[in-house]
Sequence to fold (322 residues):
Amino acid sequence: MSLVGTVDNAEKYRKLNQKIEEIKNEIGKVIVGQEEVIDQVIASILCDGNILLESNPGMGKTKMVHTLSNVIGLDFSRIQATPDLMPSDITGTHIIEETETSTDFVFQKGPIFANMVLVDEINRATPKTQSALLEAMQEKQVTVGNQSYNLDTPFFLIATQNPLEQEGTYPLPEAQRDRFMMKIHLDYPDTNEEREIVNRFTNELDFSPELNQVVSQASVTKMQEFTREVPIADDIRDRAIRIVKRTRKNDKLDYGASPRASIQLILAGKAKALVEGRNHVSNQDINEMAKPVLRHRIGLTFQAEKEGPDADQVIENITNRV
Fold:
């Protein structure tokens, strides 16, 4: 039975919004500021989506993801991408296990077998290793030899990349970028936020406040199911589709976003409504989620890259006109 329209629906919205606020409060014990980024990360998790997190070094990406995994009760794993990283280093491999009576090949799981996997500097891994992540991101499984293994549920892959250093990196191909629901930018903190960051991490040898686990793994799955049931008016849904279609016919773009982007934008709008404490999707939700959902799915022309505008400005122009 659908949750939407039932007698208990308002109460379920209230409880879910309360849990989201508790999650944000717990993260705030460690992370200073970055409210918009945290909202977008939570929205992506509500949609069961993978995240591409981009910022300069030292911005607390790993700390944020690790903190979030603790707060929502998910097993955390971190993979540092390097040029010599092999696919088997991620997925796992078969090893020989000897006993007194037999010798067997046993599959030893790799770090991809966790609920929340952080791949640091994913663009430093070779294309062969990057491709090993595709099956995990899309199918929630990995294949080693002729055997497939299901990943834990829920499963999220959060990859980081540094936009400054391009030497010795392997840019993600379009097909892999499209597997990320959102590309989220972390910007520098303002002066007051940076002062608080410095105070927290210089006054104690090991700043690690006690964090409360707000929800369980099973609760995260239920929250994802409820997110899909958030109502969206037909005209708002159609407008989201038109926004995506406009990226395919734009003189600033070589190519636009696929129908997968339309699906992700509407889902992101539903999650954004829940994060904001509302029980329906607004046009503003679509506008605010358009940049993180679309910015990595469109390709600027050579002229646009040379003279501007950037991808975010193109998306903003489209949302203002549709």
Q: What stands out?
A: The CA atoms of residues 4 and 229 lie 6 Å apart. The chain is about 45% helix and 15% strand. Residues 1-7 have pLDDT under 50 and may be disordered. The two ends are 35 Å apart (CA to CA).
